Structures
1.
Amino acid sequence: MRSKTLKASRRVRLSTTVLTAMALSAASPAWAKLPPEPPPEAMAIGPAAEPVIVAPVPPVAAAIAADIVAARAESPDDPVAAGLEAFYGERENAPAWIEGATLSAAGAAALARIARADEDGLDPAAFPRPDLAFGRGGPEPAAAVARADLAISEAVVRFALAAQSGRIPPASVSRLITLKPERPDPVAVLRRIAAASDPAAALDGFNPPHEAFRRLKAALAKERAARAEAAAGPELVPNGPALSLGQRDDRVPALRRRLAVAAVEGAAATAYDAALAAAVAAFQAESGLKADGVLGARTLTALNGGQTPPTDRLAVILANMERWRWMPRDLGRFHVFVDIPAFTAEVVHDGSVDYRTRVVVGATRTPTPVFSDKIRFLVVNPYWNVPVSIASKEMLPAIRSNPDGYFERRNYEVVIDGRVVSPTSIPWDEKTIRRVRIRQRPGDDNALGNIKFMFPNEHSVYLHDTPSKAFFEKPARAFSHGCVRVQDPLKFAEALLAEDPSLNARRIQRMIGGREARLDLKSPVPVHLTYFTAVADAEGGLTLRQDVYGFDARTARALAAAP
């Protein structure tokens, strides 16, 4: 992507007189502007007026002013261009990163740090900027100095924006990801970096401050090193289904190269032919495997020397680093962390996990949304208000066949205008089921169990108990309609209410079985419903989890298409 400021400045060709006038208008203080010419009669009366001295505008400042005017005209709604205009206006359009004709120490440090953006999971090419050797070959014209200084400023701002709030909007991956990344103010970014004693460290500070992100960054470096080492050795054949004689697969050319089998051109290039099957059988015999010529999982592992092709792992790491940029920078000293791919929830206090429990999350057709909020109250002995979508899609046929029996067996009731009515009084169809409210009374069979933990949100999801305990024994637990089911709600409540002396699990236990009751927390507790499929340990070791909702592939595609 070419810098908007640079593109605009190259189209502007103004005379020195016009540049000076624009610079004065854009940046010169009020005292430096020429007063209007007085009328002739005023000139004839009294002593002659003293001449007004106009301070000369440095050529570089004039060129910067002109480039900014052009950039704003081209992109009036671009916040980066507006930030450049405000920042340079504060300094009367003096360059920020170039002293004389060469880069200042701050400018060189900023450029060097941005050049290493790939270490942060970003693309250095996304931040067009001048070379570190700018000006070393001799004096540069004012227009070139202006363009270079503006390009550095724009690169600094765009790096900070990408590092802190991500390269892509969360909604580009899924409408159910409603995190709101904190975007830094461009003017504040430029002030901060220009005034920093260590611009590189100041730029690094825009990356997520979380330990989990720092560990992923280390895992990224480790994975790239492994990839470089693998590239220096035998080519790895990608994973995939078993291959046998006569089949076709895009991995066949890589397999031919790995086994030194002559390449085949044209339509037969992907064919698993007799020559290739014979080479695979020979390799199997040498490796102590069954020499059947079929490329199965064991043969592929042996062929790759026990290694896994690193490309997918790299993409997963980058996707997870991007998702950390969407998270609140401050998760809260005391917070709840729901990890959807891990099927767990944690109560975290001062960076340490006080309590961890298993949870059941949304099924693939009804995913749990990803966002942050605050738990504000609990409801003991809750009614379950059945969502219209569930009532219409899953309940209506059974209700129509036997309304009384259906509602009685499941402890349901029908509410219209706040009044409970008989289910037999309703002409059940697609329209009426949307006009009434179906709810399940509190009790042992209530779908929400005995407690729900509320953080009112646009998705209408929450954490809750459940009578269906068998699901917690399964390793993968994506079965709900979107809400998060907690394995032991009383223990979870005890950990959640650790800092609220007025509430505790014993009090809640005594209330179970009674009427529905709301308990407000003294201080709302931040809750984060997160989606991380790659987790690194302190040594850079990587654990990959099931991509339950397919967000990794979507994130990778969106990142590849990002400017």
2.
Amino acid sequence: MVGQKQKQGDEPLTIKNKRSDEAPAHVSDGTTNSSPDKGRAFAPFLAFLLVGFAVHLLVHQLNFVNIEGFPLGFYLAAQAAPILLATIAFWIASRRRRDTLAMGSNEPQTTSRVFTANLLIDGLSVSGELLSGAFLVALTGVLFAQGYDGLAYLLGVMCALIAMSLFIIPARVKTSSQSISKHFQKRFASPSVSIVSALVLGLCLILLLAAELSVLAILLELTLAFSFQNAIALAAVMTLAAAAIVSWKRKILTIALAAGALLVLIVLTVQSGLSSLHHFGFPIPQFSYGHALHDLVALERSMLENEIADPVTLKQHLRPRLHFDAVNFFAIVACLAFGISVLPMRTLFKGQADPIPPRSGDPRVTSTRSTRTLAWGALFVSLILITLPALAAFTKLDLYQTASKGLSLTALPSWAKPHEASGLIKVCGQTDWDAPNLKATCTNSKSERLSLHDIAIHPDAIMIKAPEIANQPQMMTWILGALISFVAFIGGARLLFIAKMEFAHTADALKDHANQKEITKSASPLVGAIVFFTMTLAAAIVALSSHLDTLTLIAWSASLAAATLFPVVVFANLWPRISAPAVVTAIAAGAAVWAYYSLGTTYFAPSFALTWQAISSAPQWQLEQLSSLMSACTQNDQTQCQQLTALGRECANWLGIQNTASAMFALPVALFVLGVLTMLFPVREEKI
């Protein structure tokens, strides 16, 4: 059997002494430690750390410098960093291609139109895979609600592409695997590793699929007045249908992802451009929204002076560290970057970008091709991401201008009227426009004028309501809604397709290698149907019962992947003596810490806060208040119980880290377990 493996590729194999009849434990890429790529990758890595992390430490000092209305610190995070990170991606791709050619690999050198078109299509497809409907809605909402602090999530998404190029692609191409499960199967020759990794990855995909279903349900709620339960059911059925079509014609997925990304870029630019043209007479929003930021600062000051806004609830859009401190800012960036980077990206490993197949068994060529595809994807992602802060700024400017002119129940804009079915828009805490006590609740003792804080819009509704808030034509609202629905459906279908492939390869790991292809072919329809139905049902249950917003679902998925899959993929590439039991234990330990922190601080927050009050960042008086509220809640006082939940979530933390960045604790635990068990029980290898 070893002979058969060597015949398929000309690369040396490293196998375990104990079981030589299994799949190879490590497939070498044929490079040596003197590879120029390994030595020169350090410079792009330093640039990545500088642009993605270090420069944002000086945001307060940099904001004193103003460029065309942009505070320099805000500008670097919102505009310059995405473009610079995309440039770093091209830098890495160029170096890797040059090193591949220098080492004698026969990478096809062509500048044909077909080759260029395939690269562009695959680059758009990568951006479509990353920026699905859930990501677009979540990022726009957090940028609107948190201003500068929300840029942490934008930077995390962009940094994920660089982490993928630096760490994940070099590891994945060594085994020439299209799935994480197949990669672990070839690397460790252990079904247990494939099973555990597939289960963890399945949970990550369920959380992401729940986010996509939630976005689709929100669209149905706001546009067609569906109830949330019915909207989730309809979204699940339509996503299943889209996944079935994608499985039948796989090329449809690539084309749909690329088309969706291109349409997103065009529509968002046009929508923001209309607002820019209306306010400043200039149609390029990426350049003009600096003036919108300047006007926002003036409006914030004016509304506070005129008592239209509450100084407690109004958060300055440009001021950093209002929602979380610098540690949380960088923790969110790191968790998103490491987690998203290791999640499967079908386009990067399907080998479509190159019209001429590379030499069989040469992973250097595959790495170069994947890195170049990723670089183009990073370019398109950066162009979309620099548009989102502009959209959020113009939407907030329109909202503030409307509020500053005066709001009342008799002169309330149509977009601000609450809808009982959705609960995404509230006026004076009420979700029913026809509620008899709405007027009494909203009436102020001094006047009937509404304050800005009387109108609450859920962040997930911001992107959908943006055209209405800006008084744009109704057609723009329908176009944007249809586009978000399309990319959300395609995103959900992609997640189901990936889940099917991962679990099919996991099933293969449990079978005899000689019959693997026959089993995969015969079992694929049944496995696909089971995976599709189970994943969709689980995602629908999570969306209905978790009561989590889209951003939290995405952040939890990324943190889980960062705490479990990322350290194994990266360090197994750097440390060949890692054993399968060490990997299984490390993944389990990382997942356990992630679950305890994420779920404990959300659903059991009061108990969590009091149990870990010694390392909580909450002040002592809040913890004492929490303890008294818990005693009152045990006496069935509903008002006290609601206050208990809210205060508990505020106090429940370790060292002040938010639960969206739980990988900051789970990842070190997984690394510690992986390192200790590997040193105690290393794998003995021999080259043949």
